[in-house]
Write a structure and sequence with these properties.
about 325 residues, 14 helices, 2 strands, transmembrane helix, cell membrane, membrane, ABC_transp_permease
Length: about 325
């Protein structure tokens, strides 16, 4: 005796399977889109489980204070990478601005505003030089900023005659250590900078032009965008933000070390890449960079609490960078 399927039963497999495929595809897309958020939550959960010191308000404040100077250079690096370039000079800009601001503070004690102004101007000048080399002379960004990285490292020692600048007035330390609304000034600058640049990149024509230049420079020029001015502006802003970072770092230690900021450019690039920006340009967000930066700082803090050696921390960060780029390439291929 044979049984016959009813029309409803006969059509059930053909409707259930596509629904399952659609559901799994949707879940995969959501997991891929918010992968960094998921990883961040897992990292926080792991460190909180391993140490009671981690999940405390005091430790959160420590992470934010440590992240603030890196946030400024990472934000500038984001603008540069969105145009398809790279800025290797931010580490030496930090050193030069730290030495220049320390020398100013020592020569003019009590005039804190002058030290900050000098740091901003020095950073802006170096960034403008990078912008001219890249946008006007068409020097490849890697070569142009590598040159200013080397020259800036030497110039920092020239300012201090080969030695750190010490004996600074106590007022110099107020730049990084003064609290407003319960938060230190660098943390406030970080928060304001992230929100302001996020709005600019998403809601203004300038942000649209930066993305257009990074996506396709030739098409942007055809559309009437002055690509040279856009390129110049992102490198100038990167230098300016690095200058602010330099004076804050120097103020934190109340000194002018000529090697300050060494290697910071790599952490800034790592934060941008981990945050989902493409090194080819045209894709990335300020919020993604902020998340990538917090990921790195949280890892550093948690691994320090667990007394993990520094060399293993570098290994973990390197693996994280490669994984972030691999996910970016894979997701690009899926979209294509």
């Amino acid at each position: 005796m044979t049984t016959q399927l009813s029309p409803d039963n006969a059509t059930e497999p053909t409707t259930v399977e596509p629904a399952r495929r659609l559901s799994s595809s949707w879940l995969g897309a959501v997991a891929l889109r918010y992968s960094m958020v998921i990883v961040m939550l897992l990292v926080i959960a792991y460190f909180s489980y391993r140490s009671a010191r981690f999940a405390t308000p005091e430790n959160l404040a420590t992470i934010l204070v440590a992240a603030a100077p890196f946030a400024l250079i990472a934000l500038g690096q984001t603008l540069v990478i969105l145009t398809g370039g790279i800025d290797l000079s931010v580490g030496s800009v930090i050193a030069v601005t730290a030495m220049a601001s320390a020398a100013t503070a020592k020569a003019h004690p009590g005039q804190v505003w002058l030290t900050v102004l000098v740091a901003i101007l020095v950073g802006l000048v170096v960034g403008a030089i990078n912008g001219i080399l890249v946008s006007r002379i068409n020097v490849p960004p890697f070569i142009a900023t590598l040159g200013t990285l080397t020259a800036g490292s030497g110039l920092a020692y020239v300012v201090g005659h080969g030695a750190p600048i010490n004996g600074l007035p106590a007022e110099f330390g107020s730049i990084a250590n003064t609290k407003v609304l319960g938060l230190q000034i660098p943390v406030l600058l970080m928060i304001v900078g992230i929100i302001a640049l996020a709005v600019i990149m998403k809601r203004t024509t300038y942000g649209m032009r930066v993305y257009a230049v990074g996506g396709n420079r030739a098409a942007a020029e055809i559309a009437g965008i002055n690509t040279r001015n856009v390129l110049f502006s992102v490198y100038a802003l990167s230098g300016l933000l690095a200058g602010l970072s330099g004076v804050m770092l120097a103020s934190r230690v109340i000194s002018g070390p000529p090697n300050l900021g060494q290697g910071y450019e790599l952490d800034a690039i790592a934060a941008v890449v981990i945050g989902g920006a493409s090194l080819m340009g045209g894709r990335g967000t300020i919020w993604g960079t902020a998340l990538g930066l917090l990921m790195i700082m949280t890892l550093n803090n948690g691994l320090d609490i667990l007394v993990v050696p520094a060399y293993w921390q570098d290994v973990i960060k390197g693996v994280l960078i490669v994984a972030a780029v691999a996910v970016d390439v894979w997701s690009s291929r899926r979209r294509t």
